Amino acid sequence: MSSAPVSRPLQRSAAKAAVGSVAASRIAREDPAAVRWLLTGLALLVVGVLVVVPVANVFWQAFRGGLGAYWRAIAGDPDTLAAIRLTLTVAPIAVAANTIFGLAAAWTIARFRFPGRAFLTSLIDLPFSVSPVVAGLSLVLLFGLQGYLGPWLRAHGWKIIFATPGIVIATAFVTFPFVARELIPTMEALGDEEEMAAVSLGASGWQTFRRVTLPNVKWGLLYGLILCNARAMGEFGAVYVVSGRITGQTDTIPLRVEKLFQEYKTPESFAVASLLTMLALVTLVLKVFFEERRRRELADAARMESAAEEGGRP
Amino acid sequence: MNTRSNAARVLPGFRPSLGWTLAYLTLLVLIPLGATFTKASTLGWSAFRDAVWTERARAAYRVTFGASLTAALVSVVLGLLVAWVLVRYPFPGRRLIDSLIDLPFALPTAVAGLVYSDLYVEKGWLGRFLVPLGIKGAYSWLAIVLVLVFIGMPFVVRTVQPVLAEIDADLEEAAACLGATRWQTFRRVLLPMLLPASLTGFALAFARSLGEYGSVVFVSGNMPYKTEIAPVLIVSRLEEFAYAEATAIAVVLLLLSFSMLVAINLLERWIRHE
User: Which end of chain A offers a freer environment for a tag, N or C, measured as fewer CB atoms within 10 Å?
Assistant: First the structure.
């Protein structure tokens, strides 16, 4: 909707009226200072106890033996290094697979209307509500030695459960919806006008996707990617079930944290956990940054659209 | 609507992208979950019933369900409070606090479990104050609830916050003009408007809690009949190679997750129609 041209004085008085109503609404919405202070204090206490104190405690426990001990706990332990290597191998594969899926799913759901579309959208959310342990179990039932495909896999010399492929599949299962969940609303909000224009100007489907869609959804995509990655590197339950937890071989970083904890090596456990905590903090910082960029781009797109609409009017 | 039907004709790539989406979804998610149901169905009804209804399994459902329900309720109350303060009261550091709300989404559950088990023991940072008062926040039922609130509260904040921010000031003005006190306005006008979002947040937190494993296994002590949750029981059955029993309990959890998924979808549809 474009606004009709308004004469200057009229505009000014409208602005004044708006200021007046803002002031009135402030009064109606104003809570007594005591209530404000009390509620703000309580909210800060909640966030402090639930989130800030635990994060501080991780670093305090990790570094209380000094930097040297911290370094030895991580770099001096070949099993921990093996766990870091495994996580750095598994997470990128799972994230890449889910990103390709996310792009395909977003293109399908945000750009086309077809029967079963709403159902497909809810199916994508399914892994969110499945317990990671159940996800792991279902993979064991399929690929494990006693599983449906076990004998066949064994005959071909393939090992999935208690090996890296199983860990990759379990990680991909649990982090399955993350990229798609971010991309679908982003693409829907952007609309398809630019893509339609590209196609009608003779761009191929692939060119349109690479030159128009990808740059447009970049921030939403990156946002989904880092969330997916944080979850992939931190996945515990599903990987716990399928990995067999062979020290130095199938332990990922979170499994290593648990094993050290079980062996009463609490300082070492916290040292390794601090790596994952730093990952979470970096993820949060990037998330805020990407979110800001995405919001700005969506606002720009909306402004362009309304400008185009106005310009198109006689 | 018109653009959409044009798009369907003009934009290419519908078939390959739909094909890839369906293939990946089927291979990665649907076939494994199908295998779980198939395996459970080979048990036969009476064996299935015996497996899911042992005394230990019943205790595990009770702990899972009770702790998740309690945690989700606490999450709603705390989440509403935090969302309210973040939307309504500007204070220094608000943006920082706002971003910290998402930390539980990004922090691996194993880390959450590790640190929560350490905080509430007798010598821990919070336990040293709470344990003398008789509050045992580690290796207990309360420990499970605490860590589930950590995981569940962000869901409530993030569903309530945008709805609260969108509420028109006119409504509160009108209520105030008609002589309502602030509390009456909150209870009679604002709370009903926040109800669908709060319910969605509750359902998301509850669904997530039902399946949670990584954090609970660290903090609960995993005592059969007392603090053992259903996912932990599945794992211990698996470690005994009792696949049938593990699968049967997994099916119970899966059916619960499916019904939660349906409930969440219905709630979200309700919000969109409001």
Answer: C
> Do A220 and A262 share a domain, yes or no?
yes
Report H helices in chain A. 8-29, 33-47, 53-63, 67-75, 78-111, 117-129, 132-143, 150-155, 164-174, 178-190, 193-200, 205-208, 214-234, 237-243, 253-262, 266-311
Range of the domain at A53: 18-62
Q: ipTM value of the model?
A: 0.92
Which residues of chain B neighbour A32 with C-beta distances below 8 Å?
182
Contact B106, A284 (CB under 8 A): yes
User: Is the CB of A111 less than 8 angstroms away from the CB of B39?
Assistant: no
Are A57 and A71 contained in the same domain? no
Indicate whether A55 and A114 sit together in one domain: no
> Cα–Cα distance between A131 and A109 in angstroms, integer?
26
How close, in Å, is residue B28 to chain A by CA atoms?
6
Instruction: Give yes or no: residues A239 and A219 share one domain.
Output: yes
pLDDT digits (tens, 9 = 90+) for B88-100: 998 999 999 999 9
Q: Tokens 């104050």 belong to which residue? A: B129
**What pTM was computed for the model?**
0.90
Q: What is the pLDDT of residues A30-57, one digit of tens each?
A: 788 899 999 999 999 999 999 999 999 9
Distance between CA atoms of residues A168 and A94, nearest Å: 6
Residue A103 included in any domain: yes
Cβ within 8 Å, pair A283-B106: yes
- Interchain contact, B21 vs A108, CB within 8 Å: yes
Place of tokens 């997994």: B250
Show residues of chain A in contact with B236, CB under 8 Å. Answer: none
Domain match, A46 and A125 both: no
